[in-house]
Automatic annotation (TrEMBL):
One of its GO terms (molecular function) is formylglycine-generating oxidase activity. Transmembrane segments: none annotated. Residues 210-257 are annotated as: Disordered. It comes from Luteolibacter ambystomatis. This is SUMF1/EgtB/PvdO family nonheme iron enzyme. The keyword Signal applies. InterPro entries: CTDL_fold, Sulfatase_Mod_Factor_Kinase, SUMF_dom, SUMF_sf. The keyword Signal applies. Residues 229-238 have a biased composition (Basic and acidic residues). It comes from the Bacteria. Keywords: Signal. Residues 71-213 form the Sulfatase-modifying factor enzyme-like domain. SUPFAM superfamilies: C-type lectin-like.
Length: 257
């Protein structure tokens, strides 16, 4: 009595599998050694060959890397070594890279792993900045809470940066009064708390290229949000203010599911 429905179900499954093999599955190439990124959660990220961890971003079809691309990952992935006069550990974010250079690097990694890596779209970046519905990503208060992110804080008032702070022969840098984060330049990625999705440094550290065009999101360790020259007071620290491409830009990867 009960075997007929079971057999019927098995027959349907077999027929469906055969149809799949004859149509979609048999004609969809699966790149060697890779393919589409597997399912991942914030607690169990997808980890790629460079040790990058990727977590889902609700409302999108991508997994986003929980950190900016580091210098070590950039070089291991075939990028040119960084030209950096500041001491670094290799775990600081790669920076001073162009938009086309960043996109090319993503394509190289895609070919190597057989997955679809790329820069996030502007909308995907916004989706990853969850909870940021307030004027600033930390809320509405000014200044930001210390150690929220690596911006241009009072930790830059050190001997080595005097000429920059005074604008002696170089572009004058501003700092956020009353804000401290402990890092006068780039910090090792993941040095500051992750957001609700498990993603670090979306705001601050290095600007991040998006794929829509040569523009960046999130601000950097140079961001003080009080550019007297342009009148864009605090705008670069606003939640949805995209900055134009800057020389200190870095990148953050996404992988398509
Ligand atoms: Ca800082
Ligand atoms: Ca960043």
């Amino acid at each position: 009595m009960k075997s007929a429905p079971v057999l019927s179900l098995m027959a349907r499954v077999a027929a469906c599998s055969a149809f799949c093999l004859l149509t979609h599955c048999s004609t969809t190439p699966v790149p060697a050694g890779g393919g589409e990124a597997p399912a991942a959660t914030a607690a169990s990220p997808f980890v790629n060959s460079l040790g990058m961890k990727f977590v889902p971003v609700p409302g999108t079809n991508i997994l986003m890397c929980t950190t900016e691309t580091t210098e070590h990952q950039w070089v291991t992935g075939g990028g040119a070594p960084p030209l950096d006069s500041w001491g670094n550990s290799g775990n600081q974010p790669q920076w001073d890279i162009g938009w086309n250079e960043a996109k090319k690097w993503c394509e190289q990694l895609s070919l190597k792993e057989g997955r679809r890596y790329r820069l996030p779209t502007n909308a995907e970046w916004s989706a990853a900045a969850v909870g940021a519905s307030t004027p600033y990503p930390w809320g509405s208060a000014w200044p930001p809470p210390s150690n929220f992110a690596n911006y241009s804080g009072e930790e830059r008032k050190i001997d080595g940066m005097k000429n920059y702070l005074k604008g002696n022969g170089v572009q004058k840098l501003s700092v956020i009064k009353g804000f401290h984060d402990g890092n006068p330049t780039r910090a090792a990625v993941g040095s500051y708390p992750a957001n609700a999705l498990g993603i670090h440094d979306l705001f601050g550290n290095v600007d991040e290229w998006v794929s829509d065009g040569p523009m960046t999101r999130g601000g950097s360790s140079n961001s003080a949000g009080d550019d007297e020259n342009t009148g864009k007071k605090r705008r670069e620290l606003e939640t949805y203010y995209p900055t134009s491409g800057q020389s200190e830009a870095g990148l953050r990867l996404v992988v398509e599911r």
